[in-house]
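Model the whole thing, not chain by chain.
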Amino acid sequence: MKTNKLKNLAAGTIMLSSLSLLSVDANAENLFNTEDLGTGSDLRSNILEANLNSPAFINATIELKCGEGTCGEGKKKAEGEKAETKAAEKTGEHKCGEGKCGEEKKAEGEKATPKAEGKTGEHKCGEGKCGN
Amino acid sequence: MLKPETINQQSKLAQYSRTGEKQDLILSNPQHVFQYRRLVFYVVLGIMQQAFPIAQKAIGIESFKALVNEFFNSHNCKTPQVWKLPLEFCNWFKTSNQVDLNPSYLSELLYFEWLEIEVHTQKDTSTEGLMPFQGNAISSLRLNPYLKSINLNYPYHKFLPEEWLSQKAEYPMVIYRGVSDFKVHFMAVSKFGLGVIQFLLQTENLTLGEFLEILTQQNNEAQSENLQKQVLTFFNQLSHKGILFEASK
């Protein structure tokens, strides 16, 4: 029974592709290296914050300053770097649709912060408004 | 039952809201009609901005807005579920002529960002019977039911954006939702680690004993003892992170 199961596993065409991944030099270093990248909001913040001064991101941001902003983004930028940093922080933390209203709550006091982070940090799905 | 003319006007208003192109509309306040387009477009843009903050940052807000505009204009959105709209955006982007106009990593980056939403919003399944992995040879190996794996081509998490293209390689990763904290977690794994996880994803009720036997068959016998030790260490790490469990057969 057991042997049959193993044979079936090995014979399966889907399995074969995966089995080939199981062939390896056991003496190789870093065979099972893992790196915990944290939660979605951690990873997002890390990527966005670490790259704030990246030329690629800065060049992308410069596009904003060209006067094409028809909805006030240009003006916001002109107000100074503070606005830029705030915007970056917003983008870094919130993907869930709560950002618009949740941000202000955050500013109301630190007590609200952990709750707000807990909610907004994790949800990108738009469900936060009604479900969570 | 709506009159044909009403349907016609509604369709034109919908078309205008999607494209911003002037339509032959009967309006009491023509100067206010642009608000429909503005409101509808910004709802869609807001959804995409929340779903793809890294992509938006990488290509710039104006380029991203133009991309969403093109998507909304040219794509007939199908999903009735708003949270699935970013997936439609990913799929549309892959097949649109926009692929050539944007950095080559963008398609993958959009999908990578989408995966977080997918894992987070995945339908709940019963985790009854799942126990922490103890290394019991006769227990079935069970992966976290809310898990996706991806072999990234670009190192968004490792390098600065200007290096993404030049550092193109393989960056295996697993994305999973904690069964108790419900948060989406990311973990970079080795290529071999990814292979093991993908193998387990494709097998059902495989016991640890059976897995180790397959592993031995696939590898040099002299190495198998060392390999088995490394696998068990890896499994313990996965268990600690809430990725691997076991269940009695």
